[in-house]
Inverse folding.
């Protein structure tokens, strides 16, 4: 298991990343100092020169961390709908240390089709409609759900109605964020 450094670390190689909250793709250069502020769901949120940036799990080695092997299901054991929910719980907003399920961002989930040809449809929202990270988070959801054996297609729709509010968060999320 990777231990998250408490001090700043130097990037070991150039790495593609996403600015938070704009979602703009940037390239961070080897040798730059970054401070890891969040390491959840395989992704890393770092601060570099006062800017918040997300580095995806497949680029963890740039931080000197091991690249995690995806935990996608390799068999049809268990309910595939539960496997989808489990994968959704590994997706995080890079600014909030609570997964998107507990935040109440998943509005609808449908798993359709026979066991070996599942189509997954997800309607989700964001905590703020103008958040540029929406497409980045939606792509992560798509990628992780597509990693489940038997899933042949994933459709992720970002929706804005009803508008998200704090009452949609689970008790666990509110507790984690100090709102209880």
């Amino acid at each position: 298991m990777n231990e998250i450094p408490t001090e700043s670390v130097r990037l070991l190689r150039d790495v593609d990343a996403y600015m938070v909250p704009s979602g703009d793709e940037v390239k961070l250069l080897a040798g730059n100092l970054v401070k890891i502020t969040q390491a959840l769901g395989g992704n890393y949120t770092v601060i570099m020169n006062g800017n918040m940036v997300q580095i995806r799990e497949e680029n963890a080695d740039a931080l000197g961390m091991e690249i995690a092997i995806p935990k996608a299901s390799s068999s049809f054991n268990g309910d595939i709908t539960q496997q989808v929910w489990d994968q959704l719980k590994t997706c995080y907003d890079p600014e909030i240390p609570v997964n998107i399920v507990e935040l109440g961002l998943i509005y609808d989930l449908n798993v359709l089709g026979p066991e070996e040809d599942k189509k997954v449809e997800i309607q989700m929202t964001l905590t703020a409609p103008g958040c540029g990270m929406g497409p980045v988070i939606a792509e992560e959801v798509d990628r992780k759900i597509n990693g489940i054996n038997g899933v042949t297609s994933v459709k992720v729709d970002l929706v804005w109605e009803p508008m998200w509010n704090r009452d949609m968060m689970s008790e666990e999320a509110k507790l984690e964020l100090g709102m209880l």
User: Anything to note?
Assistant: The chain has two domains: 9-63, 80-176.
